[in-house]
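Re: the request from the purification team.
They wanted to know what the chain is likely to look like in 3D before they choose a buffer screen. I agreed to run a prediction and write the result into the notebook, where they can find it.
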Amino acid sequence: MELIYRPLTEDNDDVFLEITEPLYRSSRVEINKRKTMLVYKESTPVGWLYMNLPDNKQYDVYVFVYVAPVWRRQGIGTEIFRYTKTKMEGYTGGWWVMYPEMEAADPFARRMGAEFVNSNYHMVYAGGCPELLTEGIRPYHEETDFPAAPEIWNREYANLHKRLGLPDVEPEILTEDDRNDYREFAEVTYVIEEDHKIVGIGGLFSEGDGIGMLAVDAAYTGKGLGTRLAVFLTQESIRRGYSNPHLYCEDGNDNALHIYEKIGYRKEYCEKWAMRKHI
């Protein structure tokens, strides 16, 4: 099967909207057009592919494969993923693939070599956020907060994977590349302090339209710090002009799900992800 890949641009954005189910159009807020391609079979659009190939080839590759409903179960998703694997040559990390939740999707991911499969809830703020408390919360400052704040995220993310029975993720030793990454997102990143030290970190997506990350040191959980930071990030997103901030939360991360639902978020849909530790 020969498929044609064309960059997503302003000129063909209407095609993207036409073939994408309304339920998944909100994923578009995450899509960087420079990393997205529409997929055609001859002259007919059949789906799209988002692929993030990091500059550092030791990092993981992220992929989102979408096939329009009328073209599913015809081998198109398999062919698109084979195409992505040709672009992964030389990478030594793993790969993550995201896809809409459907009956045939998990077997597809397994056939493509996925070792682990889990679900992510896409959640949207529906209102009713508690009173804003800013005590201990301040903007991230590279000079004083790196690497202490990012180390909390790395450590707690690894701990979450262990709790959920997902692939072990060893906390990475932070490098200059990581420093630069956090510098790029400094305007949307915040820390929370307790006992005169940083005990949590949270951030918005680059556009400011929702919560992109949130972690609190395990030694300080149960004190309401995660809730306080989640409320702050929600209100900050609203302040930046987004009335319905959104976020993603892994299935099984019950503490986080409880916090988000308590402050006004509702599950919109479930998105699946699969990964392989080594390409």
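For the purification team: The chain has two domains: 4-120, 137-263.
Please add any questions underneath this entry.
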